[in-house]
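Recall from the previous lesson that a structure prediction takes nothing but the amino acid sequence as input. Here we apply that procedure to Peptidase S8/S53 domain-containing protein from Amycolatopsis oliviviridis. The sequence below is the only information supplied.
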Amino acid sequence: MLLSTAVSGAQPSEEARTQAGITALQSIKNSLTPAERKQSSQLVVEKRLRADKGLAGKLPEYRTGLGVSDAGTVAVDIKGAGQSLVDAVKAAGGSVRYASPAGAIRADLPLGAVDTIAGRGDVAEVKAASQAMTWNESAPQDRRQVAAKKSAAAALQVAEGDKAHGNDTARTKYGVTGAGQKVCVLSDGVKSLQASQTAGELPAVDVLPGQAGSGDEGTAMLEIIHDMAPGATLGFATAFTSEQSFADNIRALRTTGKCTIIVDDVSYFDESPFQDGPVAQAVNDVTAAGVLYFSSAGNSGNLTDGTSGYYEGDFRGSSSKISGITGTPHDFDPSGTTQLYNALSPNSVGRYVTLFWSDPWGKATSDYDLFVLNSSGSVVASSEGTQNGTQNPYEIAQVPASGSGFKVAVVKYSGADRFIALNVIRGRFVTSGSLKAFSTNGVTSGHSAAVNAFSVAAAPAAGAFGRALETGDPANPAGPFPGLFTAASKWERFTSDGRRHQFYNPDGSVITPGNVSSTGGATRNKPDITAADGVATSVSGFQPFFGTSAAAPSAAAIAALLKQGKPAATPAEIRNALTSTAIDLGAPGFDPVTGAGVIMTGPALAALGVAPK
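The prediction returns the following tokens.
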């Protein structure tokens, strides 16, 4: 008994662990050099931990989440332009992946050279490279499809959405195939493009020079489009080189590629929910020129199904303190009870957590920080960048890949109370012990929520998604194939919801001067429409193809039929035809999960005034 007591007494309390970790991290923030103030928190902390073993000892379970290669390099995004800067990166031992005239460079830089580059006068920022993901939802493969693909006598794979949307019969009735339209895809890559073409699954595809990318989701998306709009010509460019490259490729697909319809399934983690960033502005440019743009709404869950890992609302400062904190923690609980943490689900391990607040992009004057703690109170991840007038209102941290009992805290280090958005990407906030779960709707954001983009939610066309999103979840819904979607059809439980609150115009001017709280700004009804996922392709890893990554090309293909049916139709007329005839799946009228509902090809063609053949 005495031994047990002695051992127990030697263990730091949860409060002591929290205080030690946060005190150590805030000591870094309080001692930043001028060059470090231009850097993202992950870069600074990684360098400090490697250089100071004493500091590392105070944070034994902490991980920055920064990928450092065996050669000691890190992928970074540099805000700056010019050949002299490119030359400086190379002279410092780095390599440049992409340099845009818009003033953005993606490079691999030795960690030890980050201070040198950040210290230059022509550099405004050096941050850990913004990461991207596609909205494919992996599930156990249908072995029958895999076997069929390997069989020499196998028939071509046809996406089940072709039947579920009534697309096959509409093509025959109205004599449309998408001819005269060029539908172009932005995704990761088209690795097996040639194999799909050899198998007869795809025709020629116009790939922008040097923009084939890596991975194969683009190939699977192209197959869906070709199944549903076989007369359309096809194009592709990768969205994965960098965020600015993604934006540049959107514009290039219109100008160089001559695409009339563009679709993507990509999201960069730092795309602001409150203001159109570089990618959304590129979408604005091409839609203003008449292009129809479709984008995946995302697979981050929704409030209706209890799958949301998103929280937004006005910052509510608490008089209670988190040990070691300089600043004011956010109180998640709107009642009289104080709750300084939001707990994460078991399947949130390894996920990224982002924090945005309603300061203008590139001009944040309020400074907020993000902390991830484990069940013992140790700080295991954080993001504590400096915001003093020239930085972005954004922080990001990664939940460790193993462990349990994780929770997040938001702290206002300095400045004004703002509207905040907290997102555990593809994770979930849950009740855990005394902590209640606080989630909201509104996770659909970034360029998918651009005003004239079609943000596309997902509904299964055929079999149900093959795994539970979290242990104990109810069964996932199945689709109507070989029948049609009806009002009884269900959306995917993982599909992301809206609406999307905006506070700033793309140029940074405030929408409602003097009010960037929940009562200010403007709201966009996103997502716009719903389309089929869970469909067949011949591409390995996408058999079947689930996620809003599959829904967006399904919708784009239907739009190609409408554009052929009435070439002179304006984008507004196409939009009205799709939304006015969509089958309502959720609450009557627009709802924040499925938008106007699931689109149907035949009724949309009729509404557009296309005559049957």
